[in-house]
């Protein structure tokens, strides 16, 4: 008897532990042991392949694709036609899906966890055909299926017979939304009070004092810029300016120096800005470079693309711009292939970026030889911002973007100039025939030089 | 009065050989040179194409004018040459003086019109006067 009494508590404790373990296992099963085809509480887990065929085969005309991630993640990339309701807002916004109660709903998130919670919510509200896409959008991209995205990560490797480009959606590398929940990307940026004043300005030299406030403490930075080389080109199409500068930044007891190239293009209805900073390693080699290329056409929407470019090989400054031109061209092709109306304007944008970067490459190669050194490591960001009718960066319709040179006047002047100059070339040929074999040279080179100089400079 | 094709006084050969030596031959040499430059990659093929078309037209135009045109047509040629040779430099100079300084104040159209009109009128007058002195005959 004594032995039986001693064993009884042990049995009860053992049974209790066993029951707890079993319950824990069952409760975690939907999270860790989901497999395709398994039905959990009336929703079905499906693979990305099944989801793709459901979306594309046309058998489900009322199919709904529900993205349950946050706004920032959705903005970065989503399945074509997906509607966004973050999983933690689903109960509150369930009415938005009311008409789809008996339609097929494919639910996805980043990797599959939030979509499972969303599926449970939908089932709770009596939605009848709910499908949880296992692996989320990451598995979808891994399977090679298309997504709507305006952000890419581009890696460039220079090989013997050219360059190798790898373009992937940026969201593969962005592990979480950079903002807090329920915030849009723009609303979560911290504002820093910055003011600047020009201390000294001479022909090729500018000294600027920048004051900013961090945690209530005011700090000063002195920026000294020396213009080393400058180039202007004014045509009827656009005005182009290139400045190559040496910049010294002094703060407290430390200072640093870097070179920078600033390329500005003002077209009739678009602007392009390219800014490259170059840190020096020695007198004839750059340690690294960072480039921002920003294309801003006038438009009526504010979709933005953002492409991060990482170049894993060393190359000269001129070659860097040639590569960025190539990258822009390839990204343009990606948008073109998407065949999505909302992305089509970017095809033109990246085509222009490509042309401008290639032109800059030639210019640097020919005119900036003294600074066209090897760069050990380079990265870049390419942006195409479709701005509102008032331009970029000011929603209140304040200052419009700078007008392009002489605009239409420049064009009219060039037309008149070319007419007179062409007439001159032909008339000389008529009264002095030995000049005739050089009429085309006279027109193509002489007139172009004179008219560009006279009209658009 | 129709001008017949005449050989220049300093040219000992025939008028036809003058055109061959001073027009057709340099044109052919230029074509060969440009072709070599296109092959070498220094000149774009489009320029060669434009050169062939434009220069052939210019030579044909010059030859046609020389062989068939009347005094009135030659006068027009001299006026055109005046607009080109004299009016164009005037246009360039006035462009710098007027358009660049006045455009920001009075707009582009007025200074451009003045510049263009002045260039064309002065060029045409000077061309006509020079042509008149030469009896509207070509230089060569």
Structural notes for this entry:
In chain A, about 35% of the residues lie in helices and about 35% in strands. Chain A is α/β, with parallel strands linked by helices and about 450 residues long. Chain A is globular and about 110 Å long. The mean pLDDT of chain B is about 80. Helix content of chain B is about 80%, strand content about 0%. Chains A and B meet through helix 8 and helix 9 of A and helix 1, helix 2, helix 3 and helix 4 of B.
Mean pLDDT of chain A: 80
The figure for the number of domains of chain B is: 2
Assembly of the depicted chains: heterodimer
Q: What's the number of domains of chain A?
A: 3
Summarize the helices and strands and which ones pair or pack.
The complex is a heterodimer of chains A (457) and B (140).
Chain A: H1 2-32, E1 39-40, E2 43-46, H2 48-56, E3 64-67, H3 71-76, E4 83-84, E5 104-108, H4 113-124, E6 129-133, H5 136-142, E7 151-159, E8 162-169, E9 194-202, E10 205-214, E11 217-234, E12 238-251, E13 254-267, E14 270-282, E15 285-297, E16 304-311, E17 315-316, H6 317-338, H7 344-367, E18 374-385, H8 407-431, H9 439-455
Parallel strand pairs in A: 2-6, 3-4, 3-5, 5-6, 7-16, 15-18
Antiparallel strand pairs in A: 1-2, 7-8, 9-10, 10-11, 11-12, 12-13, 13-14, 14-15, 16-18, 17-18
Chain B: H1 15-40, H2 45-68, H3 71-106, H4 109-133
List keywords for this structure.
heterodimer, A: 457 residues, Oxidized Rhodanese, domain 1, 3 domains, six-stranded mixed sheet, 9 helices, globular, disordered N terminus, B: 140 residues, mainly alpha, 2 domains, 4 helices, 79% helix
Structure summary:
The complex is a heterodimer of chains A (457) and B (140). Chain A has 457 residues and is α/β, with parallel strands linked by helices.
């Amino acid at each position: 008897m004594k032995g039986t009494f001693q064993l009884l508590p042990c049995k009860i404790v053992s049974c209790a532990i066993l029951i707890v373990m079993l319950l824990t296992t069952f409760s975690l099963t939907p999270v860790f042991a989901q497999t395709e085809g398994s039905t959990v509480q009336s929703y079905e887990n499906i693979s990305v392949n099944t989801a793709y065929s459901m979306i594309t085969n046309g058998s489900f005309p009322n199919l709904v694709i529900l993205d349950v991630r946050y706004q920032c993640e959705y903005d970065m990339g989503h399945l074509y036609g997906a509607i966004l309701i973050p999983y933690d807002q689903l109960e509150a916004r369930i009415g938005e899906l009311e008409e789809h109660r008996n339609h097929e709903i494919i639910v996805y998130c980043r990797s599959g966890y939030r979509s499972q919670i969303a599926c449970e919510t939908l089932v709770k509200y009596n939605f009848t055909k709910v499908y949880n896409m296992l692996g989320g959008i990451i598995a979808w991209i891994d399977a090679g299926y298309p997504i709507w995205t305006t952000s890419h990560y581009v890696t460039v490797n220079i090989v013997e017979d050219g360059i190798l480009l790898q373009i992937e959606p940026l969201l593969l590398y962005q592990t979480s939304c950079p903002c807090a929940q329920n915030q849009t990307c723009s609303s979560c940026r911290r504002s820093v009070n910055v003011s600047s004043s020009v201390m000294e300005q001479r022909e090729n030299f500018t000294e600027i004092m920048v004051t900013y406030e961090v945690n209530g403490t005011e700090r000063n930075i002195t920026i000294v810029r020396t213009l080393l080389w400058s180039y202007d080109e004014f045509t009827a199409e656009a005005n182009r300016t290139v400045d190559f500068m040496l910049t010294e930044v002094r703060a407290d007891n430390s200072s640093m120096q870097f070179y920078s190239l600033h390329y500005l293009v003002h077209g009739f209805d678009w602007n392009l800005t390219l800014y490259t900073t170059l840190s020096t390693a020695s007198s004839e080699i750059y340690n690294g470079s960072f480039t921002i290329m920003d294309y801003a056409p006038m438009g009526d929407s504010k979709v933005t693309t953002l492409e991060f470019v990482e170049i894993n090989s060393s190359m000269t400054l001129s070659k860097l711009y040639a590569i960025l031109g190539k990258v822009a061209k390839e990204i343009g092709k990606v948008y073109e292939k998407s065949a999505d109306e909302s992305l089509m304007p970017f095809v033109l944008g990246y085509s222009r970026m490509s042309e401008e970067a290639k032109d800059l490459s030639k210019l640097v190669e020919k005119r900036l030889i003294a600074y066209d050194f090897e760069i050990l490591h380079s990265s870049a960001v390419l942006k195409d911002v479709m701005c509102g009718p008032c331009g970029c960066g000011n929603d209140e319709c304040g200052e419009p973007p700078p007008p392009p040179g002489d605009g239409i006047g420049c064009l009219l002047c060039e037309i008149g100039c070319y007419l007179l100059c062409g007439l001159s070339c032909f008339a000389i040929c008529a009264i002095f025939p030995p000049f005739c074999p050089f009429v085309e040279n006279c027109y193509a080179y002489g007139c172009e030089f004179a008219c560009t100089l006279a009209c658009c400079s | 009065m129709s001008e017949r094709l005449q050989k220049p006084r300093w040219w000992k050969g025939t008028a036809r050989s003058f055109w061959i030596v001073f027009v057709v031959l340099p044109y052919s040499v230029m074509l060969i040179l440009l072709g070599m430059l296109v092959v070498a990659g220094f000149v774009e093929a489009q320029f060669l194409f434009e050169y062939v078309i434009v220069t052939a037209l210019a030579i044909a135009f010059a030859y046609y004018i020389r062989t068939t045109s009347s005094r009135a047509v030659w006068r027009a040629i001299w006026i055109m040459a005046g607009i080109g040779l004299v009016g164009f430099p005037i246009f360039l100079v006035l462009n710098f003086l007027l358009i660049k300084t006045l455009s920001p104040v009075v707009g582009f159209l007025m200074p451009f019109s003045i510049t263009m009109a002045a260039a064309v009128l002065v060029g045409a007058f000077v061309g006509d006067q020079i042509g008149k002195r030469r009896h509207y005959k070509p230089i060569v």
